[in-house]
Amino acid sequence: MLQAKKLNNMSRLSRRAALAGLAGAAAVGAVVPIAAALPVSEVDPIFAAIEDHKKLFDEATRFSMALSEAEEAAEQKHGYRPVPLIHWRNYFIGGTEIDFRRAALLAEPGADSKKIEKEYRAAKASCEARERAGRAWDDRAGVALRREEMECAYRAARAGATHLAMLKPTTPAGTRALIAYVRADRKDYCEEWHEVAIMTAIDALAGMSSIPAA
Known about the structure:
The chain has helices at 2-17, 22-27, 45-78, 96-106, 113-141, 144-166, 172-185, 192-209, and strands at 86-88, 91-93. By secondary structure, it is mainly alpha-helical. The chain has one domain. It starts with a helix and ends in a 5-residue tail after the last helix. Mean pLDDT is 83; it is low at 18-38.
């Protein structure tokens, strides 16, 4: 029972950690210039992309919190939801983490590849079984639709983050806004799109510096 509760809490914390940057994103509103306050010639599409990103992650947070509340209420009748995390060599991992762990183990000096591959297959099978059990729990507890809504919102939020990270600002003000937004958002949780966005901002600045002054 204690093990199930620990894994269940880890799953919720992982889900919330993925949105931990939201507090920073909300706080950066006071730092990022507002496009509406700028002259028409200074309007940069990056401002709209930042606002879209905030809205998408706000929506994902709302669905995530609603699912957590529904899960907690259902636990009284159905017990803890099986979490798709497995124990492999002192690690509680799941999903693509299992593949990363396999690669890391195989890269170690003197690695026993046959043993690692056998453990890997067992880990994948165990994780898939827990995923099936989790979906069955969702159906019994009546939260399957809430989970589908949350996952859909997460996909939209990730797409918004990718769009924001790859959209090159067209003005110095927009570039500063993007950098400020990323810095605030990554204080609590660092994601790959943050690094891409910073590189995009650097590339934008390099292009602006090459434009001759009027």
